[in-house]
Amino acid sequence: MRWMVTGGGGRLGHHVTGALTRESERGGDQVAVLDRAALDITEPDALRAVFAAHRPEVVLNCAAYTAVDGAETDWARALRVNAEGPRRLAEACAAHGARLVHVSTNAVFPGDARTPYDEDHPPAPGTAYGRSKLAGEEAVLARLPGTGVVARTAWLYGRRGRSFVSTMIERAAAGEAVDVVDDQYGQPSWAGDVAAQLITLGRCPRAHGVFHATNSGEASWYELAREVFRLAGADAGLVRPISDAEYGRAARLPAYTVLGHGRWREIGADPPRDWRRALAGALEELLPLWAVPRGSA
C-alpha cells in the first residue's frame, strides 16, 4: 500500500510516520512523509506535484493549525489551514482515487454534555478553533462521502513537541507547585495509540465517515496532572485545583468533550485502551525526555 502523511513533522505525524515505517519494513508498504516545509496543503499546484510523484492510495492528514487561543484573533489563518487545506486535499484525493483519513478534534462539540459524545452527535463548536476544524470536517465528508474518514482526537501528548503532559513532567521533576483547571473534562490521548488507530482506519476499506480516535475513560486536567506527578514519583499534593474562569485564557474551552467510540465495533476493531494505562506506558518513554528542571545544564 502506498501511504502519504501530511503534517509529518508534528506531534501526531511523528508517531504515525514511525509506526508506518516499521510496518513498511515488514510488509513492503511505501510511505511518503511530508512536513509543512515540504507541502502546504492549501496550495493546489503543490498538491498536484506530490500526488503525481507519490501516487498515494491512502493519505493521513495530520497538518493543522492547533493554536486554540491564537485562532480567536487569527481566524483567517486558522480557517485557511483547518478548512481550506483539508478541502483541497480531499479534492486531490477524489481526483486520484485515494482514501483520506483527516484528523479533527473534540472541540467541534459545545461541551454541555454529561455523557460521551457519540460520533453522530450534532457538532456545535464554541471556539474559533472548533469552528475552523468543523469546516474542515464538512469539506472532507462532502467531497469524499464514501472514502473519507474524519478521526477526532483530543488532549494529545507524545514524544515530539510540548504538551500539557510534558509540562507536568517538568514541574514534577522540579518539585514545583502548579495550579490546574479542574472543571474541564476530556480524554488524555497518547499519540502512539492514536497513530495506530489512524493506520487501522487507513487500512480498512469499509471505514468512512466519523470515528473518535482517543484513549478511553475521562479526566479533568487536574486529575491528569496528579496522575503524571504520581507516576513521576512526585508529590501529587503539589497540584492545586482552579476553575477555568480563574485560569483566564482567551478561548473559553468546552467543559465536557469526552468522546464515545461506538463505531470501532462496526469495522471489527478493538476499543481504545484506558487513558491511565496509556499514560503509564507512555511515561516510560517520556520521563527520560522531559524530566529535567528548567534551567538545568
Automatic annotation (TrEMBL):
Transmembrane segments: none annotated. GO terms for molecular function: dTDP-4-dehydrorhamnose reductase activity. Gene3D superfamilies: NAD(P)-binding Rossmann-like Domain (3.40.50.720), UDP-galactose 4-epimerase, domain 1 (3.90.25.10). Pathway: Carbohydrate biosynthesis; dTDP-L-rhamnose biosynthesis. Residues 1-286 form the RmlD-like substrate binding domain. Its EC number is 1.1.1.133. The keyword Secreted does not apply. It comes from the Bacteria. CDD domains: dTDP_HR_like_SDR_e. GO terms for cellular component: cytosol. Keywords: NADP, Oxidoreductase. One of its GO terms (biological process) is dTDP-rhamnose biosynthetic process. PANTHER family: DTDP-4-DEHYDRORHAMNOSE REDUCTASE, METHIONINE ADENOSYLTRANSFERASE 2 SUBUNIT BETA. Belongs to the dTDP-4-dehydrorhamnose reductase family. Catalyzes the reduction of dTDP-6-deoxy-L-lyxo-4-hexulose to yield dTDP-L-rhamnose. This is dTDP-4-dehydrorhamnose reductase. It comes from Streptomyces reniochalinae. The gene is rfbD.
